[in-house]
Amino acid sequence: MKFMPHEVMPPAAVGDTAPPMLELVNVWKRFGDAQARTVAVSSVNLRIAKGEFVTLVGPSGCGKSTLFNMIAGLLPPDDDGSLLFGGAPQRDGQLLGKVSFMPQRDLLFPWRTVLDNAILALEVEGVPRKEARERARAMLPEFGLAGFAGHNPHQLSGGMRQRVALMRTFLFERDLMLLDEPFGALDALTRSRMQHWLLEIWARHRRTVLFITHDIDEAIVLGDRVLVMSARPGTVKSETAIDLPRPRDPSVVLTPEFIRIKQRLLAEIEEESRKTFAQEGTAS
Amino acid sequence: MNAFLQRAVRSPALAFVGLALVWEFCVHAFAPSPRLLPALSAIAQDAWSVWPQLVRGFGRTLLETVLGFATGALFGFFCGTVFTYSRWMERSVFPLFVVSQTVPVVAFGALIVIWFGNSLLAKVMTAFFLTFFPVTVNTLRGLKSCDPQRVALMKSFGAGRFVMFFRLAVPSALPQVMVGLRVAIGLSLIGSVVGEWFGETVGLGVMLMEAMNADLVVRLWVVMFACGLMGALLYGLLTFVERRLVWWRSES
Questions:
Q1: Which domain range does residue B114 map to?
Q2: Is the residue at B233 inside a domain?
Q3: What is the mean pLDDT of chain B?
Q4: Which residues in chain A have their CB less than 8 angstroms from residue B147's CB?
Q5: What is the DSSP letter of B105?
Q6: Do B156 and A125 touch (CB under 8 A)?
Q7: Which of A105, B68, B179, B247 makes an SS bond possible with B124, Cβ 3.0 to 4.6 Å?
Q8: Domain of residue B85, CATH code
Q9: Is residue B36 part of a domain?
């Protein structure tokens, strides 16, 4: 859609014609009763257009995962906001099965082989096992897992396990993919390789992606837009369009544009981290 | 050769042979009264002399044990499942299970005979009674310890209760269920032997009683060895099944 560096897509422009893939309007999540209330997510507004790759960064404990669980349909948002998917408001649990969701841990089932882990979602959907396996087998090379179909998860490295989990997410063919720090547990080198590999796959399959991370470099390298979340109560504090040309290769992190964006985002996040620290200081 | 020797040293077979040698040595060196410690050769001879009875008894007790174990394991798994998914049942019925286990099985052996007569069923019931509880407890624990994040993942795929149960909950509970089964298999053997004491004509428990009453010390040893052999066989079989069924490593 946008390979030209300056062809930045402002979200509002998309909203005029078709409804955005996902729209959050004033979404809140509060825990506990009136006396001991924790506001995990406050007044989040965001729109994601079809085919976009949006990254969300924020300090740890800012409610990123709570927000994610709400978008995945695992946690109902509070009543005062609404969550629209393809233009239609979603009530309790209606989003389950509509969004392909990849949590932080790979959560592979140790009793299933690589291939059978990958087809888990298809099996749940009721696709016959044989057909599901054939579809998955065809995707193995693309995910760097050729020849590992019959391996068990404990035989794989962290990066490979993460790729199996991603493949499982990809095979669950939904328009919106939610990735929650999928590379958080990997070493820096593997992580960088995985990021660029993910970009390649994304360019081929053109899914809409919302990607959570606490790594600013990762957010900039991957995203069309970077959303910065504030310290608790979490809300989307700023939004930055990343107009670095695609395809982006690993050296993109050395370009002056990249560094300029990073400096700005770092300053914002630094401020938020300080706030979190201060809050924790007063709370204890 | 060296590797072979190392394997031999570590294998339990050598320990058994060693124990037997020490045994024979003690008998020859200290010559205790056969009442206290009969020679292994004497035990073997006695076993040979009652061979047909021993084989029949072994078969009968094995049948009781296996039937009691199988029914108890199934019932236990069923109850564990019900308790996992029904808080109400867990609250109201589970304490009853616990209380039932505090009564020693010997205490109502007579009652079982009155209810079920002098039948195979009576022994199966005593074995069953000892078996179902550890399986229930371990099934309950296994199913409850199912990783909530995996549950969330399955939910996000749109999984319903049945899919969730068979694809996720049961496989994750299996290692724990196997722990329960291993405890249960030994208890099941105890149950069937004790069950035979309340009236039976065939079985290892019967032979044990007879030997005790007739003061046949060597025969006691024969039956003890037979019981030990059966227990080891069953345990070994279960371990074999476990390796096949729960071959993955537990992650936690």
A1: 49-251
A2: yes
A3: 90
A4: 107
A5: G
A6: no
A7: B68
A8: 1.10.3720.10
A9: no
User: Is there a contact between B149 and A105 if contact means CB atoms under 8 Å apart?
Assistant: yes
**d(Cα A41, Cα A65) in Å, to the nearest integer?**
10
How many other C-beta atoms are found inside a 10 Å radius of the C-beta of residue A256?
7
Chain A residues with CB under 8 Å of a chain B CB are 69, 72-74, 96-97, 99-101, 103, 105, 107, 109-111, 120-121, 123-125, 152, 154, 172
Q: What is the pLDDT of residues B82-131, one digit of tens each?
A: 999 999 999 999 999 999 888 888 887 788 888 888 889 999 999 999 99
Let me know if residue B24 belongs to a domain. Answer: no
DSSP state of B134: H
Q: Considering the entire predicted model, what is its pTM?
A: 0.82
pLDDT at B214: 92
Nearest by CB to residue B171, choosing from A99, A109, A124, is A109
Nearest Cβ partner for B149 among A107, A125, A154: A107
pLDDT at A91: 78
* DSSP states of B29-83: HH---TTT---HHHHHHHHHHTHHHHHHHHHHHHHHHHHHHHHHHHHHHHHHHHH
Q: What chain A residue is nearest to B149 in terms of C-alpha separation?
A: A107
Contacts of B157 in chain A (CB under 8 A): 97, 120-121, 124-125, 172
User: Phi first, then psi: what are they for A91, rounded to 5°?
Assistant: -95, -175
Note the ipTM here. Answer: 0.82
Residue B15 lies in a domain: no
Given an 8 Å threshold on Cβ–Cβ distance, is A124 in contact with B251? no
B168 and chain A: CB distance < 8 Å anywhere? yes
Q: Does B215 touch chain A (CB under 8 A)?
A: no
Number of domains present in the structure of chain B: 1
Contact check, Cβ <8 Å, B171/A99: no
Q: Do A101 and B153 touch (CB under 8 A)?
A: yes
Q: Which of A109, A110, A124 is the closest to B157 by Cβ?
A: A124
pLDDT digits (tens, 9 = 90+) for B194-209: 999 887 789 999 999 9
How far apart CA B51 and CA B53 sit, in angstroms, is: 6
Q: pLDDT tens for residues A132-186?
A: 999 999 989 888 899 999 999 999 998 899 889 989 998 998 889 999 888 887 8
- Amino acid making up residue B133: F
* pLDDT band per the 50, 70, 90 thresholds, residue B193: very high
